[in-house]
Amino acid sequence: MNPVIRKLHEAQLRKDLPEFRPGDTVRVNVRLQEGEGEKVKERLQAFEGVVISKKGRASSATFTVRRVSFGVGIERIFPLHSPTHFPIALADHQFHRSRRQR
Q1: Distance of CA 64 to CAs 4, 6, 25, 47, Å?
Q2: Residue 98 above 60 pLDDT?
Q3: Which tens digits make up the pLDDT trace of 48-60?
Q4: Strands of the 41-55 sheet, one edge to the other
Q5: Which residues are within 8 A (CB) of 22 and not within 5 positions of it... i.e. 6 or more apart?
């Protein structure tokens, strides 16, 4: 990779991320915008669930979190180094042999 491009990628990486693996329970605080026009409000909403996969490298890395809400399974994919979510909190560490649990 070109050294200039590598420096750009390294500048975009977040340093405050905890070490987590598939099987761990995490809480991701996501910034949401509500309203339209001049009445736009921003708030944080917590999304807590089990990490089922991690993909990619550097600034394009993503992770998938699964949770069950009212009997329905919800999977959400988050960019690992995105500025739209605030600190990822590691809630619980579990050991699983397979990456995707169902």
Answers
A1: 30, 25, 11, 11
A2: no
A3: 999 999 898 777 8
A4: 72-79, 62-69, 41-55, 25-34, 85-92
A5: 51, 52, 53, 54, 96, 99, 100
Mean pLDDT of 63-67: 92
The tokens for 28 are 């991701």
Complete domains list, the chain, with CATH = 3-92 (2.30.30.790)
Tokens of 64: 């998938």
The amino acid sitting at 16 is D
Cα torsion 21, 27, 28, 32 to 10°: value is 160
Give the residue among 57, 58, 65, 55 at the shortest CA–CA distance from 85: 65
With 0.85 as the threshold, say if the pTM is over it: no
